[in-house]
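Researcher: We're teaching a course module on how sequence relates to structure. For the next exercise, students receive a sequence and then see the predicted structure as C-alpha cells, so they can try to spot secondary structure elements on their own. Here is the exercise chain.
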Amino acid sequence: MIIFYDDARARRFEPFATTLPLAEMRMGALLQRERWQEVLHAAPRGFVSSPHLEGFAEFDAPPAHVGDVPAGTWLVNTRAVPLLDTVRSTATVLAIDHQVAAVKLAAAVSREQLQDVMFALEDVLPSTGSMANIPGVWLENVWDLVAHLQTVLQADIPAVTQRTEAVPLADGIATILGSHGVFVEADATIEPQVVFDTTLGPVLLRRGAVVQAFSRVAGPCYVGREASVLGGRVAGCAIGDVCRVHGELSASILVGHSNKGHDGFVGHSVLGRWVNLGAGTTTSNLKNTYGTVSLWTPDGVQDTKLQFLGTLFGDHAKTGIGLRLTTGCVVGAGANVFDAMPPKAVAPFSWGGAPPYGRFAEEQFVNTAERMMARRHVVMSASARGWWRRVHAVASADTRWPRG
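Model: And here is the predicted structure for the students to work with:
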C-alpha cells in the first residue's frame, strides 16, 4: 500500500495547502496520487499532511492516515513527480535526481515522527535493499506546477494513452495539424469545425469529453473525463475531470470540477477544485517589462525566475465578471472577489470588490459551495460541511496572509 507524505515544504504550497493534500493536486495528466499508483502498482491508503486536513474527503481520495505507518508500506514524498514511462523497479528506494522520492519501509514509522517538521524520507532508509534513480522532476516550489507542466504532459499523454482504450482520432472528424497525434476514448464527442494542432505535442481526450465547434486545441493537451471545451483556443493544458473551458486558455492546470466557461484569457495558471471564473476574467501572465515574476508565499514574496506566471486559484475561489488579475497573483481558497483588480495575494475566504476585503461568512460559504457542487451532481455530506467549517476557522486565523 501507499501512504503519501507532505513534507514541510509541501505544506506551504499555498493557496492549495489550505484545502488539499498534495497527493490530490494534478500535475500533468494525472493527480499525484494516481501517478504514484501507476508507478508503484500499489493501492493508496492514506496521506499525512497538516493537521487541519484531517477529515478531508473528496471523491476516491484516501483519508488522512491515523496511527503509525506499518512496515512494508510505500512512503512517498508528494513533491516528487515520476514520469509515467518509468520501468517498474524491484528497488526498495526510488529517487529522482538522486533525491529520495519513495521508500518501502523496513520498519514502522510513528505518527509523531511524521509530524516532526524536520522529518525526511532519508531518515527511514532500509539497511538492506537497493536504490533506483528514476526519471522525473521535483516540485521545489508551488510555481513548479506551471514550470514543469509541458515536460510532464509530453511524457504523460503517450503513457496514459497506452494504459487506456484511447485510439487515434479517425480521419475526417476534425482538422489535425502536426504529427504527434490525437487520441480519444469512447464516448468523447468532437463537433464539426474543430482544429487539433499537434505540432508541439499530442492531445488526449478522455471518456465523455466534449470539444465543441470552433475550438482549437493545441498539444500537449489533456482533456479529462466529461470535461468540455466550449470554443476558443486551448493550448498546453491539463484539464481535469468535469471542467468547462471557453475562450483562451494556455499552459494551465485545472485540477477538476472547475469552470472557465466564458471569454477571457487565462495563462500559466492553476485552478484548484470547484473554482468558477466569471465571464471575462483575465489573468496577466507576462510583465510588460518582460522580467521575471514574483509571487507571494507564506515565506514572503519570492522571485520565481519565471517569465510567464499567471494566477494560482485555491479551491472554491470565485471571480466576478470582467475581473483582471495581475501577474503572479494568489487567490486563496474560498475567496470571492469582483470589481477592482485584486492585490498580489488575496487571503482565503475573502469577500469584496476591493481591499480591505470582508470575510466570506462561514455558513454563506458552505451553502454556496454546496449549491455549486450540486450543479455537478455531487452532494456535500454533513461531515464535509463540518470539515469546511473547521478549515474556514483555521484559514481565517492564519496570520501569514496579507489582510489589507
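Model: If you want an answer key for the exercise: The CA atoms of residues 6 and 78 lie 6 Å apart. The two ends are 45 Å apart (CA to CA).
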